[in-house]
Structure formats: C-alpha cells, structure tokens
Sequence to fold (416 residues):
Amino acid sequence: MQGTDEQLTITLWDFSWYTRTGPGEPFADLDAAFEQAADRGYNTIRICAMPLRLFGAAASTEPLRIEPLGGGFGQRTRWYDIAGPTELDPLEHTLRLFRAAQRHGFRVIVSSWEYQQSTSFSADRRWYDAIVAVPPAERPVHLANALADLVDALAAEGLDGTIAFVELHNEVQFSRLTDGVEGDPVRELTPWLERGIDAFKQRHRDVLCTANYAGVPTGSLADLPRNMEVAVFHPYINGVLEQMQTEFALRSPALPFPQQRVRDELLRPGAPDLDDWHPGAENAWKLEATVVGRELYLHDWCDPAAFDRWLVERYHAWAPLMRERLANWIAAASDFARLRGLPLVFGEGWVGYTPLHGRFEEDAIGAGWCRTAMRLSARYGAWGSIVCSNAAPHHPMWADVALQRECNAILTGAAV
Fold:
C-alpha cells in the first residue's frame, strides 16, 4: 500500500548526523550533506533524534560531548569510526538539521537508537545510566512522550511538516527495550509498544507513529501492535554472512571464540587476541551501551580482502536461499501492510553488517542485491525504501553515485 504522498527514497543517517560532525567529517556541513543526498536521488533521511537526551530521562541543557570509544577501538568498524572529540548543543543541532531538511525539501523519519548504541558515543555514562534506569515496561511510553516533546519543539519552529513519521525506537526486538522479557520478544513487547503509540497519538494525532522491526518477523506478524501506523521492517538477509557469524561465534558470547582459526583465515598481521582488544577500563561501560560485540574486534582487525574472499568463496551456495528469503520477506511484509491498510517502508537492509573497508556490499554482489531489493520494493508498492544501509555519507558506498541514482529511480519509476 502506498503512503500518503510521494515515495520516500531513504538514506540512513542514524546517529552519525550528530556523532560525525567534527572538522572534515561527513556531517560537518549539513547543507552539503543534503545537497549530495539530493544529487543521488534521495528525498528522505532516517535518524536517531536522541529524544531521551533532549526531553526524556537523560535531558540536560549541558553540551553533548561525543568521542571515539577509546584506544582505537571501533576505528575500522562502520558507524564507530569517529574521528575525534566534538561538542554540540543537542537541541540547537537538531533544529539545525530540520531547518536544513526543510530548505532542501527532505522528509525526516524520526527514530531513536538510544536503547541500542547511541549513548556509547557520549564522553561519559550519564546518558546511558539515565535511560536504563527507566523500567523496561515503561520505556516505550517514556520514548513516546519524549518524541511528542520533540514534535512540539519542531512545531514551535514551523518544522514539523518535515516529519515523514515517527518510530518509537529502532529494531525494538533487538534493543534494550527487551530487558527482562522472556519468550518471543516481538509478542511480549506488543502491549508495551501499543501503550507507547497511544501515548504519542494522544498528543499528535496528525503525525504517523509506529514501531520498527529487525528483519521481517514472519512468525509473529499477527502479533504486531494493532495501533501501528506504518509497517517498517529491516530485511537483512545475511545468508553467507550468517555462516561467518555462526562459525566464528560472533554473536554468541557464551560460546568459545575460535581465536586461532579467526587469525588464520581473517585477521591482519599483528592483530591482538579478542581478550586483549577493548576500549580501556575507564570506557568499559561503552561496551554495555552497544549491541555490537565480537564483531567490533573482527571488523577492526580483519584483512578486508580476506573477509570479502571468505564470503565470496561460499556465496554461491547461499545465493538461492538469500534470494528466496528476500523475496519471501518482502512479499510477507507487503501482505501484512495490505491486510492492516498500512504504508510499507524498508528502513534498513540487505546483506548485513560488514567491515568499514570491506567491499562485499559495495561491489558487484552487494550492488546486485541493492537493485533486486529496490525492484521488489517497487513491485510490492513500498511507500519508502533504501538503496542499502551503507549508502550514506559516512560509508564508502556514498562515492558510488551512479548506483544510488539507479536504485532510487527504480523505486520511483523514473528508471528507463
């Protein structure tokens, strides 16, 4: 089902629009970033609007001090490669972003990554401590009220018209919204999320509000909130990347880490052991504040060519399953949206999480998935979709202007 206006061609600016603002960094000049995005065919950005830092449990009038994780940690990992310490007024910077969006004719999808990783970039732990002190069952309503306060602040400046829609949080079932949840997190979160959406809608009936899901939870679609107003999913198909994650226990911290095999197959010479790679004792809390674990080590210390080669050598055995998964997920998401009468949006996706200097998602294989996903998004009438999660100013794929123009034209029907 279509949305209420033109299709959204989305570039994922996440939290990087405020963590990467230092001299020479991608968002030091917001107008230039919007101009580059428009040149690539985008009309929408999707962001962490840091609502809890602005108006929620962590609200403060003090400047927001951003810094790298520490000790070189994360500097070869996507999203974590902050160049140096910076400081900004968070509310003024937020208004500056929305003013620039308005000038350039962009829409903004307003979300939060605060219960995933936004707080890990802060110079101290107060933001993190404040938000985890909110009882889990109360977090969606707390987010809703902070987001409603943000909309009030934007409305006071005549900027609320830039909002495409509001998400209570990014990837709710893979965040600390699930603290204390037992069983299927999608089902268990639903009553909390419904209360959050209701709380937001009591204050802003004219702004679409929803929850956002990692993947397409096909076994639980019937259990998603009845009051959500946009169907938003992130189809990371993984496939061969999932094989790597499994074989090297990258997302299974309870399992032994195969250090020697990782060293033999993937690492650069001189890499430390996993247990010796950390941001320093004084920054240990930052590891609590992010959902990314062992992958930070691998992405920091891999030989990107070896990483890509490992995937390519195994890719063709996985390609049919990846193709089937993507097609099935997008079809299922479309069916869900049509049954509920909701606009359909894919806000992140396609292959998965790769190192900053890896090329698997940027080169021929990954670019092929971008084209395929956009064709499927267009075929199933998505209101909005994304070229790729890595197609943004803070990733190397930003340099591939032609691919982004092509994919955005596929979605909007402008492709010849």
About this structure: Residues 173 and 216 are 11 Å apart (CA to CA). The radius of gyration is 20 Å. DSSP finds 14 helices and eleven strands in the chain. The chain has one domain: 8-412.
